[in-house]
Amino acid sequence: MVAVSEGFSHRVLPYAGAEELLAGAVPFLRRGVADGDRVMAVTCLGTEVLLRDALGGDAAGVEFVRADSWYAHPSRTMADCLGDAEDAAGGGRRLRLLGEPAWTHRDPLEVREWQRAEAMTNVAFARTGAALLCPYPVRALPAAIVAGARKTHPETVRGETALPNPGYLDPWTYNAACDTEPLPPPPPDAEELLIDVVDLYWLRMLVGDYARTALLPDDDVQRLLVAVTEVMTNAIRHGEGPIALRLWTDPGALVCEVADRGRWRAGTGFGLIPPRIGEPDDAAGPDGGGRFGLWAVRMLCALVQIRTGEAGTVVRLRLKLPLRVDGRLSTHSG
Amino acid sequence: METLWSVRRSVRDLRPGDHAWLAYVNQEERRHVAGAFVRDGLLAREKVVYLAAPGELIPGVVGLPSADLLTVVTMEHLRTEAGACGDADAAAAMRALAAEIVAAERLGCRAIRVTADMTWAVRGPGGLDRLMACERHIERAVGPSTTVTAVCQFDQAGLTADELASVGATHSVLVTPDPEFEDSVLRIVRTFAPRGLALSGELDASRHMVLSQALAMVMAAGPAHEVHLDLKNLTFIDLGALNMLAEVAAARASGGLILDRMPAQLRTVVDTVGWTTLPGLRIGED
């Protein structure tokens, strides 16, 4: 048996049924209650009922949070959870979190981002000393998601035993592997603008008009304008012309991409790790556009896709479009 | 001063025939605006006539301008003018300044700037009524002039709201500070109560430098004071500017940087990005 170490841990708990789930989760949570950790269980309602029953009186020492609201957005969830972990560490405690990611109702792009977030968790939380345990229901999930979890979690838990995952990948290697496939090309009717004026005021007018026509809500229009300004500013400063801005709508999403001929240098952090205040970028990578630029862009958009290589760099921003009142997904008519 | 004023002009936009008033909130604002008025005049080699309070250093004066360019009229001078009639009053001030204007015109000056802080006259002999009569007289005299620009200064704290409104009504123009920066996208104007800058338009990387310079000026003028940014009319701010403001705030040992009246759409952005990533930024009044 491997004792739970006092340092950071991020483990996957694959389970086939309630028994296996409880065999791993209950000792994990009990240990936290006994140690005076801040103990959280982020699960669906069914799992919460099971855990409360199994924990008995110890359930009072556990904060239960519903998974579907907790796992709302990869970057925002990571920021909030990291804040909790740092607050706990600052108070001499440890954050101990049982987190059952919500995989259902996710499209493949979202699944990819949550998997990426699992990998980056190993970098972002390393110095908080947090103990993170992620149950994966092997029968309910596609095999690829369970297999992916063994690449993003350093260890697997069975009962009270933790064993190293032989397939575990360095988080940055995993991240790069997520982005090997080229992005699908923009549709032929995408709006395209070659940027030759440096004043982004005009660009924002164009993007704002397009987004409002596509019925993007006002708050999201503002988020998009800030995000595209940031990405474009980076491209102007560090990229190579010509710089193209393209806008289109996919079913349920407004897409805005900035493409240039430059290639990001190795070690770029891609904005995947929250910036640490008062410290130079290290793990977060040299984001070029400022300490928190790309990180903030991820926070502002539903999803950010980046490809950089010989052919140049594309940063694609996606924001969700609301369902129209007629029940169909809105699409931009041009 | 928030009024529905018919004509508002910044100092640099004043022109001959303007009889303008400045209702200042404090000496800093008075010296800022009057100083710009004097400085612009002297640099353009225009005649400047300044009615000075006892012991006052004339704002906006660089070096030692010749008496041909700058004439300072003192209160002692006014008392001499008033002679047997008693204390200096608004009428005496008007006569003294008018005499200087006539003298300057005789010398061939094509542009003459006149400015005086007239707050004292409200409590002087004849009080508000005599001041108003004089102001109306000046309005009639300056209005058609092609040479004279006049700025009458009043301390908001020295007059009641009614008195201010009455005095203001006798002027055709309200003078405002020159913007620290202005183009078609962004405008930055000094504010004095609270101290700081009012931003309107959009702020992104193209204009970080001008904001940085304007902020540095305000901060240098009062290192220990809080600096407020009035964002009411700012419709866009980029991440770089937010980051810059956070760094300026964090670097300031005393006297913070406060963001007042931040529009909801800008707040949405900062809320989404997270205030914790921008330590030092403080939200002021709505």
From TrEMBL, chain A:
Query: Organism, per UniProt?
Result: Actinomadura parmotrematis
Question: The MEDS domain covers which part of the protein?
Answer: 10-154
The UniProt record lists the Histidine kinase/HSP90-like ATPase domain at: 203-318
- Its protein name is Sensor histidine kinase
Alphabetical UniProt keywords: Kinase, Serine/threonine-protein kinase, Transferase
SUPFAM superfamilies associated with the record: ATPase domain of HSP90 chaperone/DNA topoisomerase II/histidine kinase
GO terms (molecular function) for this protein are: kinase activity
UniProtKB/TrEMBL annotation, chain B:
The record's listing under InterPro entries reads: MEDS_domain, MlaB-like_STAS, STAS_dom, STAS_dom_sf
- Please list the residue ranges annotated as the STAS domain: 197-286
**CDD domains recorded:** STAS_anti-anti-sigma_factors
Checking PROSITE patterns in the record gives:
STAS
Q: Per its record, how is this protein called by name?
A: MEDS domain-containing protein
What broad taxonomic lineage does this protein's source fall under? Answer: Bacteria, Bacillati, Actinomycetota, Actinomycetes, Streptosporangiales
